Amino acid sequence: MENRAEEAVSRFMRGYNCAQAVSSVFAGDTGVPEEVIFRAATGFGGGVGHTGGACGAASGAVLVIGLSFGSTGPDEKEAKDLTYALTREFITRFAQRFGTVSCTELLGCDLSTDEGLARAREQNLTRTLCPRYVRGAVEILEEVLASVTSGRPTMR
Question: What's the domain count of the chain?
Fold first, then answer.
């Protein structure tokens, strides 16, 4: 893919949620079909199901880290440790760039309330603010993954 960050923003603007847009552009790297990633990421949009929790773009990136390096059982301590370390690194960088990973704080309104959701829609916040977070999540994720995957043919 020529420019994953731009493709993710394009997908977001076409109607995929933020988590789907970020995670799906890494489908080829994870070896997981796009359709599966779209389904798995659906509930993370809107700060995890419109609860205003963790930004969906950030959650989509964490999903990619898990699909790429995560453990498949309790005995895979190294995989779990690597996944946690990469996730911490991603979250730290995202928060440094944007000030927080909270959807509510990023948007300046709480999507878990009717008032907050109405305000977000009224002011078109997801279309004006979220593309920046989608783009940033992909860029940061690429940097974090590059530190681990350089020299490796595939992630998993």
Answer: 1
